[in-house]
């Protein structure tokens, strides 16, 4: 599928080149040029090269010349993964407290902001403080708010999860509301970081943005989910980390939230003070383009004109329906295994061997998504991921029959690990392919690939 934006929505790209080439050809033929053609040539001459015009800085060829920017993007995506990982750990905690699946369904609303961020992405693109920076105007306050919310939640989360003295169970609506706010802020941060990646990296290296996204979010999710569940588990800490057993883990959810609140505050201050948005000031000194000066409503109108494109409508339908076949298996398998008696900390530990795989996979897959048809990997991985839904269903059905008095045998965890690894290959193939496609067709003038 070729979803290249039309010339009418790419004012700084292909259209101006065609106008200039056509004007030159007619000059040689002795035909007078129109005013619009002359204006197109003037705009192209004023804007400079394509790399400068779209805001990407001129850097030495190769990723080594932009290693600092790549590391910064990776770190920002790691921070983004922390609240996502914490949100992913809460259902397992609530499942151990015998929360109903109806309440678990309420909590699943926490992850909706990442699916709906297109609704407020134009606001992030159109409203900013020019002197501070287009992306930093949203990135810095959003990360400060994430720190503030984590700090406040660290003082309330124990009471929310225990309910009224532990008699009524967790306050599901309260927990959902707080983590929904964290997810909303993380999604807004994602919009800002995705947009900054398009101008922070040069055109030849912009494909690394999807790699930073997948690797960074994976690392952040691991820290907020797997590491937290392991350190919070008394059984795991007594077995592997302590000499004398205790009734609690090394950290609590409150402690973990407080620590990351401090990390968000400190690192956001450093980014705000030390990091400049390369290419922005130089480009504004040359010219203030009409597209960059457009307001909120103009941005929404431009967004609607893009959405109405036939190829975009087809792609939206694909994304809206692609997960129907495997969403239930992805969401419920872990909860069903905990219900069958598998310790939640053991499930979390199974993700540890996956971390090297999750980091290496995007690097391998990016070699195949860097070409002109990145979605080919998406299409090839799709039926395999559907098959993994059937594998997960069989795994849930098989689990009660292999349970022993002392727990589950080693070969059971080996089978779960193998199934999880196969699922990760399919999941990351689809995810990296989609992100690479978005980065390839996105225009920095209207923001990030959402």
TrEMBL record:
GO terms for molecular function: acetyl-CoA transmembrane transporter activity. InterPro entries: AcetylCoA_trans_1-like (IPR024371), AmpG_permease/AT-1 (IPR004752), MFS_trans_sf (IPR036259). Residues 1-60 are annotated as: Disordered. Keywords: Membrane, Transmembrane, Transmembrane helix. One of its GO terms (biological process) is acetyl-CoA transmembrane transport. Coiled coil: none annotated. One of its GO terms (cellular component) is membrane. The chain crosses the membrane at residues 70-93, 105-126, 138-155, 175-198, 219-236, 256-274, 306-326, 346-365, 377-398, 410-431. The keyword Transmembrane helix applies. The keyword tRNA processing does not apply. It is found in: Membrane. This is Acetyl-coenzyme A transporter 1. It comes from Albula goreensis. The lineage of its organism: Eukaryota, Metazoa, Chordata, Craniata, Vertebrata.
